[in-house]
């Protein structure tokens, strides 16, 4: 179960990076706010999963509960850092990479 939680945090981080970066590159810088909404949604899902998991391991040792709590906190850090990385990548791409889209000549 805990491996699934870690995987969920990593996949959620990649979704946040990819969607935020794509929206900002395709539609403009202000669309990065949509990434914040995704980030808040992912953090809320993480809190919900943490509460559900902590109720499920009632008979576990205190050390196991502490490790589980740290893993959920690590997921939040992964999600937050994913959003920050997407902002940094956007700035780097805008500064150093020129994206040119060429359409074929339309014949009438």
Radius of gyration: 19 Å
Write down the overall mean pLDDT: 85
Question: How many strands in all?
Answer: 0
Report, as a whole number of angstroms, the end-to-end distance: 60 Å
Shape: elongated
How many helices? The count is: 3
Low-confidence stretches: none
**Hey, roughly how much beta strand do the residues contain?**
under 5%
The secondary-structure element order is: HHH
Can you tell me about this structure?
By secondary structure, this protein is an all-alpha fold. The protein is 80% helix and 0% strand. It contains three helices and no strands. The radius of gyration is 19 Å and the shape is elongated. The chain starts with a helix and ends in a 12-residue tail after the last helix.
């Amino acid at each position: 179960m805990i491996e699934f939680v870690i995987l969920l945090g990593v996949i959620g981080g990649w979704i946040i990076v990819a969607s935020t970066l794509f929206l900002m590159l395709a539609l403009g810088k202000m669309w990065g706010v949509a990434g914040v909404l995704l980030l808040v949604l992912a953090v809320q899902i993480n809190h919900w999963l943490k509460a559900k998991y902590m109720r499920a391991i009632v008979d576990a040792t205190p050390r196991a509960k502490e490790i589980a709590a740290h893993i959920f906190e690590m997921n939040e850090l992964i999600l937050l850092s994913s959003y920050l990385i997407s902002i940094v990548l956007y700035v780097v791409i805008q500064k150093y990479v020129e994206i040119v889209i060429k359409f074929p000549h339309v014949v009438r």
